[in-house]
Amino acid sequence: MIFKEIVMIGAGNVAQQLAKSLWQKGHRIVQVYNRTQRKGEHLAQQIDSTAVSRYKALYRSADLYIIAVKDDAIQAVSDQLSSVLQSSQMVVHVSGATPSTVLAKHFERYGIFYPLQTFSSGDPMDFNQIPLCIYASKAEDEVNLLSLAEQLSEFVYRLDDTQRTNLHVAAVFANNFTTHLFHIAQQILEKEDIPFQILMPIIQKTVSKLTSLSAKDALTGPARRKDFQTIQKHQSVLDTYPAFRAIYDELTDSILQTYPNT
Amino acid sequence: MIFKEIVMIGAGNVAQQLAKSLWQKGHRIVQVYNRTQRKGEHLAQQIDSTAVSRYKALYRSADLYIIAVKDDAIQAVSDQLSSVLQSSQMVVHVSGATPSTVLAKHFERYGIFYPLQTFSSGDPMDFNQIPLCIYASKAEDEVNLLSLAEQLSEFVYRLDDTQRTNLHVAAVFANNFTTHLFHIAQQILEKEDIPFQILMPIIQKTVSKLTSLSAKDALTGPARRKDFQTIQKHQSVLDTYPAFRAIYDELTDSILQTYPNT
Predict the structure, then answer these.
(1) Which strand (E) or helix (H) includes residue A67?
(2) Which member of A171, A174, A183 has the closest CB to residue B219?
(3) Contacts with B81 (C-beta within 8 Å, 6 or more apart), sequence order
C-alpha cells in the first residue's frame, strides 16, 4: 500500500462512506478531522481512528489528506491545511464541481478522488459499483491514486479538470434533471388521482434500454415521430400548468431539432 | 371468458405483443386485419389466426374488436369498421393520446385498452409487468375489459379519458424527456472522450431511489441546495452548447422555484 497513512478531512456523507470503504480494504485512516468533534468521533470510532477538531492537532506526516467537505469550504480547508502541512504533502479533494487547482495555491502534489454518485444520508453505498474519477498533479501520485481507487471500485477513470467539470454537468442532466421530471410527472398524476407507481415500469424500461440502445436511438414519443397533433393535445393539457408547459415546449423543440429528418 | 372471439386490427408492435399475450392466455384471436396482407399473415400464423386486408372480408360477429394502429389512423379505421359492423358491437383502441370518444361516432359500446409502455420492435415484452389502462362506455363492458386485462397484467387501472390524457403527458416527461436528457449528457461526455457508461450507476440509483423516496425528496444537486457558484460554473461550461444551456436554465429555474425555502 502506497498511501500507508490517510487523514480524512470531514465527516459528512461522502467522508463517511469513503473512510469506511478505505478502512474495510485495510487502509489506515490515522485521523478524522471535523469542526464538530463529536461528529468526527462518531466516524473515527467505526474505523479505528481518532478525531480532532482543530487544525493545530492535525497529524502532520500522513501520506494522503482527503478533503471531503462541501464544495464551498474546500478553499478554506486548503488554506487551513497549509498552515500545518508542508507544501510537498499530498492533498486531494472529492468534488466533481471544484477544479483541482484550488489546491495548487499551497500544495505541489494535489489531486482528485471524485466518486460519481448521489449520496444520501443513512444509505450505505457499495463503492465497488461507484465510478471513481482520479487526477493528480504529478504522474507518480496519479499512478498511486489510481491503484488506490482500483482497490475500491471496478470503475476507475482518469479525468482532468475540464473532463470532470463536463462530467459533473452531464450528471446534472442525467440525475438531477431527470429526478425533477419525475417529480413533474408525479404532480400531474396526483391531480388526477393516479398513483406514481403506474410509471415505474416505463421508467425502468427507459433506463434498461440504455444498455442495448444509445439514448438517441432509444427515444420514442410524439416529438420524435413529429406527431404535432398529439403535441398540441399535450400543450392544451398543460395550459393549467404554465411552469411545466415551458419545460414541455423547451424539451419538445430540442427533440424536434435533434431528429430533423425522421 | 367473456370475450370469446377477438379481432385484432393492426399488426404493428403493440398489436403483435397484445395479440400474442391474449393468445397465450387462451383467448381466441379469430382474425388479424392489416392493410398489408403479408404483415397480417406473419402475425396470424403465430397465433392460430387468419389474416385479412380488406374490411369487406372482416369477421363480423366477434365479441371484441381491438384497434391497435397508429394514433392518426384510429379515426379512419373506426369509420371503416362502421361500414361492416353493427353499432352495438364492442370496439376498443389501445392509444394513450386519443380520446375514447373518437369511437363514439359509430359505436355505442366503445372503450380503451391502453398498455403504458415504450414498445420497441423485436423486443418481446412481459405484459404481466405492463400497466393496462382500461375504460369502457358501458359499465358491464368495463367489468369484462378489466377482467380481461387482469388476465394479462398485475397492474390494471381504470382511467377515464381525462386521466389517461394526463397520464400520457406525464409519461412523456418520465420517459421521452428523460431519454432526451440522457442523450444530451452523452453528447457532453462524448466531446470529452468520456464513455456514457460512467453515468449508468448514477442513473440506476436515480431510479431505484424512487422506490423509497418521493421524486421531490430524492432530488439533490446544485439547484436543490441553491449552490449558485456551481450553477454559474455549469452555465459557463454550457456556453459552447447554447441549445443545452437553454434547457439547463429552464430546469434549474424550475427546481429553484420548486424548493423555495431550502
Answers:
(1) strand A64-67
(2) A183
(3) B9, B55, B58, B65, B67, B91, B106, B107
Q: What are phi and psi of B132, to 5 degrees?
A: -110, 125
* Residue of chain A nearest B224, judged by CA positions: A176
Q: How far apart are the first and last CA of chain B?
A: 55
SS3 at position B150: helix
CA A63 – CA A61 distance, rounded (Å): 7
Quickly list DSSP for A70-99.
-GGGHHHHHHHHHTTS-TTSEEEE--SSS-
B177, A205 contact by CB (below 8 A)? no
Q: How far is B50 from chain A (nearest CA, A)?
A: 31
Contact yes or no for A172 and B200 at CB 8 A: no
Q: Say whether A180 and B233 touch across the interface (CB within 8 A).
A: no
Does B202 touch chain A if contact means CB atoms closer than 8 Å?
yes
Q: In 3-state terms, what secondary structure has residue A180?
A: helix
B122 — pLDDT class (breaks 50, 70, 90): low
**The model's pTM:** 0.93
Task: Give the pLDDT confidence of B160-172 residue by residue, as tens digits.
Answer: 999 999 999 999 9
d(CA A143, CA A2) in angstroms, rounded, equals: 10
CA B28 – CA B48 distance, rounded (Å): 8
- Report yes or no: A199 and B170 within 8 Å, Cβ to Cβ: yes
CA closest to A95 among chain B residues:
B230
Residues of chain A with C-beta less than 8 angstroms from the C-beta of B102: none
Q: What ipTM was assigned to the predicted interfaces of this complex?
A: 0.93
**What b/e readout covers B34-47, taking b as 16+ CB neighbours within 10 angstroms?**
beeeebbbebbeeb
- Tens-place pLDDT, residues B31-65: 999 999 999 999 999 999 999 999 999 999 999 99
Which cell numbers hold the place of A182? Answer: 419525475
Nearest-by-CA chain A residue for B258: A180
B158 touches chain A (CB under 8 A): no
